[in-house]
Amino acid sequence: MSVHTRCVVKGTQGIQTWWRALIAALCAVACVFSLAACGSDKEAGKIRIGIKFDQPGLGFKKAGTYVGFDVDVAKYIAGKLGYSEDKIIWKEAPSKQREAMLQNGDVDMILATYSITDERKKAVSFAGPYFVAGQDLMVRKGETAIHGPQDLNGKRLCSVTGSTSAVTVKAKFASQVQLMEQPGYAECATALFSGIVDAVTTDDIILAGLASASRGRLTVVGKPFTQEYYGIGIKKGDTAFAQQINTALSEMIANGSWQRALAYNTRGAHFKPDLKYNPPVIQKVDEQ
Amino acid sequence: MSTTKDESSLLFDQPGPRGLRKIRIANWLAGLVFILVIVLILLRLHNPPDGENQLSWELWKPALETEAWTDFYLPGLWMTIKASILAVLGSMIYGFIFGMGRLLPSKIVRTISGVIVEFCRAVPVLMLMIFFWRWFAFSGMSEASYWAVVLSLILYNGSVVAELIRSGVGNLPGGQREASLALGLTQTQALMQIEVPQAIYAMLPAAVTQLIVVLKDTALGSIIMYTDLLQESRRLGSMYFNILQTLVVAAVIYFIVCALLSKLARILPEHMQKRTAATATPVDVEPVAPLAIMDASNVNQIAVAQEVDGNRYGGAPLQHHVHHRGSNASIRQWRHTRYIQGYDETHPESQEEVHNREIPNLWKRKSSETDDDAIDQQNHSTEKS
Amino acid sequence: MNDVLQLFSQYDIPGAFLVNIELTLWSALFSMILGIVLVVMRISPVSSLRTVSAAYVALFQNLPLTIIMVFMVLGAFAQLKLSFSNQFDVNFFWLAVVGLTLYTAAFVCESLRSGINTVPLGQAEAARALGLSFSESAFQIILPQAFRGSVAPLGNTFIALLKNSTVAAAASVATESSSLMSEMIEYHANSIVAIFFIFAMGYVILILPIGALTTFLSNKLAVRR
């Protein structure tokens, strides 16, 4: 008995089953594809709003609902536009995909710590601003040595990968600062908790949201040193829509809902926005 | 393979009473040291120099309650699994196309497929992901990170599958091809209808292990903001600042899923063996030998190919493989291929498989044969029968 | 073409690759040592050592490297205060090396085990017949041959290690190649394809010689029988 005796051509019997397996595989692929595709279809009578899902205090997915300042502003505007809360479809708008989402029509508007810049105005239009944030520092409660970015020499500072805020600090205020980059602010906050960094830097309202979630153990320094105008991103050139949003926003500020939403979402953090700029002056919608 | 085989049995004699006592003491000592290390780590976590007690229920509760599962872990796990399944199916198709491409008679097709496969194998998956992610987002694609994860995993793992198919065809007994040619099939037909289907069955267990690799690599997607299990667990952690705890839960989930899959990969070969003339090899958790031109695991096949070329003027067939005398630089399965591929029927005695006979069980009793031994013997007997 | 040349002068691309190579070399060295320790534990007569080694391999083979890297920063550094230097850059580099080492050692152990399988039984029997003890026969007879027989899988493991070194980005190593690539894409989105191919070709150029060397070594070092 040796090897060649079992050289029966096995493939002929295997062939049908092989094709069947291949077809089954293709079907399965088609299924998953169609699953992935059905995320982007438009439903009548609903509004799709892009927010952050991972930023406590601004836009955060919690227990099946969404909470935060961005979310509250979005709800108010949607309400004024005639969409009740159940008519809102929330979509996640990660920082690097915001322009693309608006251009593709995946969302109708975006409130996701979206600063108005000239660069972005080339691709999308903005309504608002609905908040003027400023870069600030967050430290442990009881920290006495850090009152502003100039105190950071020889200290350790955490910021998020790909953000320019830490580089700004290093270039303008404290050249001796050591930088740590983490994928998210929560990692930074965890690092701050455990003492491996001394401060976290980014926009003050983001820090306030984190401080509010920290059960009173982190605090915002409260001396913002830049200005970021948070706008509501909409499809390029839709001035009528921008006008509607701005009207709703002015009303929200006038009747105090804006202040209440801000206070509620930063509760416990003793956060005061930069009063020189807040509540923001709604700009006239410029013809673009 | 043979992950559970007791290699120790061949390294030392059956210990006597004194040896046993020594071993028992060493056993206890080693066990104690490891427990001590774990206790020290836990103590450190319990009472860190600054920061909070990482073992407190206050931090663990939000990481374990129902809400965390329904809102974070399970959706994240689904995203991970969705991307993995699509990537594995895609890489099977991709691997099939390019694996075939490297076997077809046309030299141009072979070269092109070869270059593509080698390129995709050499580039780190994370770089592929970052590139596709930015590219898709730049060109305005929705769900850019999802497609970036899937496509990068298809390109890398597909190339590994292509190599598996190629080596799977190489591992088939030559008789399969000869018989199909004798039946009047063309070379391409023989390849498509006889050899490749069998090779696919032979590589299915390896494909399952590839699924583990894919599943682990989807975690890279969290770097490009894909909301997979890892990303979702970070997110959950950002609410209560218990990232360490949520990451531990995510790690446990990854571990369980991967361990189950590797178990499947170990069981599958027995079932697959019935459908193929090649050896359906049970593979290690990560395949040690995805072949390629530059891949050292390929030395045996390269050697056999050269040997066949070297004999093209006829003459008496070689009694022994050149390679057999030259090298044993291979892992065990590849050694089989050498003997089977170049079977010399005038010298059946040269088929004596020197390295594959049963290892006498000195350490364990006969009754304690592991599953792997059984598979070994099965493989052994199929080749001999 | 000019844009591409400008990229080279603007960014330290070879420097980024150097970081990856350094990560790889240190991790390769340490994971080799740890892998040998693990494999010796695995074949030793002491069952608790065998269990620990098996558990280690199972654990690290079934965990994604990304999560290990994140643990190195948030767990080992932040909580256990495992710190190598007061300089953050240096510290994160070494944390990444530790992460890569822990992960790769499991695969090195498995590669060596497959090498042990290629050593004929007679070698161990002969060693025992000569009266060598476990450690003598392991370190003088079995492991040297196993090592020569496992060059191929080891080579694959180290190629994977080089590619895995890009995951150090998850441990805050901001100077390595994949981080530099994202940074370059951020500011030069128009030449994204060119940037990708620069880095991709860098890896092809690094990996092909390693593959060739492994093939050469596994033939050269093979035990003639």
Summary keywords:
heterotrimer; A: about 290 residues; alpha/beta; D-Maltodextrin-Binding Protein, domain 2; 2 domains; 5-stranded mixed β-sheet; 9 helices; 13 strands; disordered N terminus; C: about 220 residues; mainly alpha; MetI-like fold; about 80% helix
Short recap of the structure:
The complex is a heterotrimer of chains A (288), B (385) and C (225). With 385 residues, chain B is an all-alpha fold.
Describe this structure in words.
The complex is a heterotrimer of chains A (288), B (385) and C (225). By secondary structure, chain A is α/β, with parallel strands linked by helices. Chain A has two domains: 47-130 and 232-265, D-Maltodextrin-Binding Protein, domain 2 (3-Layer(aba) Sandwich); 135-220, D-Maltodextrin-Binding Protein, domain 2, CATH 3.40.190.10. Helices cover 36% and strands 21% of the residues of chain A. Chain A has helices at 11-37, 69-80, 98-104, 118-121, 165-172, 185-194, 204-213, 239-254, 257-265, and strands at 47-51, 54-55, 59-62, 65-67, 88-92, 109-110, 125-133, 135-140, 156-160, 178-182, 199-203, 218-220, 228-234. In chain A, the strands form three sheets. In chain A, strands 5-1-6-13-7 form a five-stranded mixed sheet, with helices on both faces. In chain A, strands 10-9-11-8-12 form a five-stranded mixed sheet, with helices on both faces. A three-stranded antiparallel sheet of chain A has the order 2-3-4. Chain A starts with 10 loop residues before the first helix and ends in a 23-residue tail after the last helix. In chain A, 46% of the residues are buried. Chain B is mainly alpha-helical. In chain B, helix 3 (66-101) packs antiparallel against helix 9. Chain B starts with 16 loop residues before the first helix and ends with a helix. The relative contact order of chain B is 0.11. Chain C has 225 residues and is mainly α. Chain C has a single domain (2-220), classed as MetI-like (MetI-like fold, Orthogonal Bundle). Chain C has ten helices and no strands. In chain C, helix 8 packs antiparallel against helix 10 (192-220). The radius of gyration of chain C is 21 Å and the shape is globular. At the A-C interface, strand 10 and helix 6 of A face helix 4 and helix 9 of C. Chain A: Belongs to the bacterial solute-binding protein 3 family. Chain A: This is ABC transporter substrate-binding protein. Chain A: Residues 46-265 form the Solute-binding protein family 3/N-terminal domain. Chain A: Keywords: Membrane, Signal, Transmembrane, Transmembrane helix, Transport. Chain A: It comes from Bombiscardovia coagulans. Chain C: InterPro entries: AA_ABC_transptr_permease_3TM (IPR010065), ArtM/GltK/GlnP/TcyL/YhdX-like (IPR043429), MetI-like (IPR000515), MetI-like_sf (IPR035906).
